[in-house]
């Protein structure tokens, strides 16, 4: 019964959001087209340049139902350490001192499978880059690694744990691997030492399961950790299709809901956020969903990051979308958010 109610609730919610977006996007597109584009272009050259989105690796040890990893046969890479340093150095030189952020997981990949992970953290800390943000499934979060993260990097880290469910079966359905106990024991150890050392460590449990599965002993335990200020819990209950590669049916088998198909009017907001530097050095215009670099705007092996940010190709993709021409991946993508959607424009 709960499940039926949940499906009806989501159906109605999706319908309302889709209708609301249709009305407001159409209005702003017809009456404020140039004004909003100008604001977005200014923003693209300003605050967003304080964030670096750099995929340290595209290798992962899970196979989440809502993620493109495992559904495409892309080549796997760990970013070369010299290339990593070159990018970090250029970013430091050209960004403002305060509020700088490096995201190590803008698309896919788990940083804890990366053999250079600690070397990368060391370099970013030594060069005083600012915050380092990443998502991990915590399967490789050994106790030794947790000790190191809390003792040596607490001041720069902002960690999000992708959490596919609060019991073994749900977790397996969502994460595609039978590693619930291992991930749980790793996370509980990290939380324990955060509590013992009383460090101001930023740890977020990013729930990636149906709200129907927010229950049971582990859920209750996590709620207590949250009440004690040891972790945050963030939730996503509607999932997107990663450029058309994720099947609605597969999501539904794990009790997850697919996002509605948005009205495509004007350029996608994600083109105005920092582009992704992939682990092989190819740079994609899309902020998070182009894992195969279909929207390539440069190659950091042979170009500077600044030249890529200011490249004609980047502007060309924006112009094409403004005129209603969407590359194949964008045509199928429901992650798309119009820059004329005032409800989502400001959200990250
Ligand atoms: S852990 Fe992250 S990268 Fe790996 S499959 Fe899941 S969502 Fe994708
Ligand atoms: S439509 Fe999708 S793939 Fe294209 S830029 Fe937007 S989020 Fe990226």
Description:
- With 348 residues, this protein is α/β, with parallel strands linked by helices.
- 38% of the residues are buried.
- The mean pLDDT is 94.
- The two termini are 34 Å apart.
- The chain has helices at 2-31, 33-44, 81-94, 117-126, 143-153, 168-175, 180-197, 217-227, 248-253, 305-309, 312-322, 328-332, 342-345; strands spanning 51-54, 101-103, 131-136, 157-163, 202-207, 232-235, 238-239, 257-258, 276-277, 282-284, 296-299.
- It contains 13 helices and 11 strands.
- α8 (217-227) links the parallel β5 (202-207) and β6 (232-235).
- The chain has a 9-stranded mixed β-sheet. The chain has a two-stranded parallel ribbon with strand order 7-8.
Give the helices and strands as they follow along the chain.
HHEHEHEHEHHEHEEHEEEEHHHH
Strand order of the largest sheet: 6-5-4-3-2-1-9-10-11
Hetero groups: iron/sulfur cluster
- Which oligomeric form is depicted? single chain
Radius of gyration equals 20 Å
Rounded mean pLDDT is 94
What proportion strand?
Answer: 5-15%
Number of helices: 13
Cα separation of the termini: 34 Å
Portion of residues in helices?
40-55%
Uncertain runs are: none
Apparent shape: globular
Biggest sheet overview: 9 strands, mixed
The SS-based structural class is alpha/beta
Looking at this protein, list some descriptive labels.
13 helices, 11 strands, two-stranded parallel sheet, 12% strand, 348 residues, binds iron/sulfur cluster
Give a nutshell description of this structure:
The protein has 348 residues and is an alpha/beta fold. It has helices at residues 2-31, 33-44, 81-94, 117-126, 143-153, 168-175, 180-197, 217-227, 248-253, 305-309, 312-322, 328-332, 342-345, and strands spanning 51-54, 101-103, 131-136, 157-163, 202-207, 232-235, 238-239, 257-258, 276-277, 282-284, 296-299. Helix 3 runs parallel beside helix 4 and helix 5 (143-153) runs parallel beside helix 7 (180-197).
């Amino acid at each position: 019964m709960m499940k039926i109610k949940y499906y009806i609730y989501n159906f109605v919610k999706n319908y309302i959001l889709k209708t609301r977006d249709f009305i407001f996007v159409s209005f702003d597109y017809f009456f404020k087209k140039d004004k909003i584009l100008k604001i977005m272009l200014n923003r693209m050259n300003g605050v967003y340049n304080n964030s670096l989105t750099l995929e340290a690796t595209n290798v992962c040890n899970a196979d989440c139902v809502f993620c493109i990893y495992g559904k495409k046969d892309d080549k796997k890479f760990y970013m070369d350490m010299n290339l990593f340093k070159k990018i970090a150095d250029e970013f430091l030189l050209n960004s403002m001192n305060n509020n700088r952020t490096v995201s190590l997981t803008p698309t896919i990949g788990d940083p804890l499978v990366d053999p250079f992970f600690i070397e990368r953290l060391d370099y970013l800390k030594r060069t005083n880059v600012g915050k380092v943000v990443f998502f991990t499934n915590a399967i490789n979060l050994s106790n030794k690694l947790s000790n190191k993260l809390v003792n040596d990097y607490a001041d720069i880290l902002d960690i999000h744990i992708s959490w596919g469910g609060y019991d073994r079966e749900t977790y397996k359905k969502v994460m595609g691997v039978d590693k619930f106990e291992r991930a749980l024991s790793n996370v509980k150890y990290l939380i324990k030492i955060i509590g013992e050392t009383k460090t101001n460590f930023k740890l977020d449990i990013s729930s990636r399961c149906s709200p129907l599965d927010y229950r049971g002993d582990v859920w209750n335990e996590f709620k207590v950790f949250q009440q004690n200020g040891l972790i945050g819990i963030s939730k996503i209950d509607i999932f997107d299709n990663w450029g058309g590669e994720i099947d609605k049916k597969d999501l539904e088998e794990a009790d997850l809901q697919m996002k509605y198909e948005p009205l495509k009017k004007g350029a996608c907001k994600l083109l105005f956020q920092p582009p992704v530097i992939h682990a092989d050095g190819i740079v994609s215009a899309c902020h998070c969903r182009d894992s195969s670099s279909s929207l390539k705007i440069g190659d950091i092996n042979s170009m500077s990051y600044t030249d890529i940010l200011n490249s004609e190709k980047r502007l060309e993709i924006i112009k094409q979308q403004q005129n209603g021409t969407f590359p194949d991946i964008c045509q199928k993508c429901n992650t798309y958010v119009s820059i004329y959607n005032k409800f989502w424009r400001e959200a990250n």
